[in-house]
Amino acid sequence: MPRTAVRVFPSPNAVGEYLAGRLLPRIEQSLAAGNRFLLGCPTGRTPRPVYGAMARLLAKKPQNLRHLILVMMDEYLVEDGGELVYAPADKSWSCHQFARVEIADRLNASLEPAQRLRDESIWFPNPREPAAYDKRIADAGGVDFFVVASGASDGHVAFNPPGSPRDSRTRIIQLSKETRHDNLQTFPDFGSLEAVPSHGISVGIDTITSAREAAMIVWGAGKTETLTRMVAADRYQPDWPATLIHECPVREILSDADAAHALEPG
Predict the structure, then answer these.
(1) Residue 28 lies in a domain
(2) Residue 264: inside a domain, yes or no?
(3) Residue 263 lies in a domain
(4) Virtual torsion, Cα 240, 168, 142, 61, nearest 10 deg
């Protein structure tokens, strides 16, 4: 298996501009071919430069997104009457809130109503039937491109903690302390670690690696360790889930200079 290419950019915004410049033409080409485009999407700090760059490009050159499907990776779960259900969608840290405000609203801002991404085109796994998510994705032709991000402290991807099996698929996960701490850093509105939900529903390692193409984004000095661990690997290593990028058929790792400062030249 060939080594996964690592591209280093001067800033997070430069990472976002590069990936947005790749994604939007692909999305447009799928429309011309009469196909939907399934885009796997994370939430949180890391992908914000990508969604922002896509919005800026769409403001300059609007294009039709009616065929775009956002395949969201995960969502926090809270207990309600003894059952785990989605966290309230009006919470600032809710993945539903992020998908609507940080992705859909930004992409749609410069588009005519007939061109806009539709509410029903934002997909989330259902905690009552997790396995149905992988079937829904497969029935729609599979994810065309997965944007992937990694946790700083333990290399988690979505809510997949260290030890996640290579063949894992969408499931309910008890969140590790490290994942919850990273999420508190991402969403200070939680206020305390105790306020971060203890469970979530998440796509699995196999769900992500089944995409036709993927890009792993890392930026900031806090992501130096996860980038170093990924570059040192050449296949999936369960103790550091971010290494899943090596299992994707077409893949690359996109970093900014701060995260890449410890890498050997070349």
Answers:
(1) yes
(2) no
(3) no
(4) -30
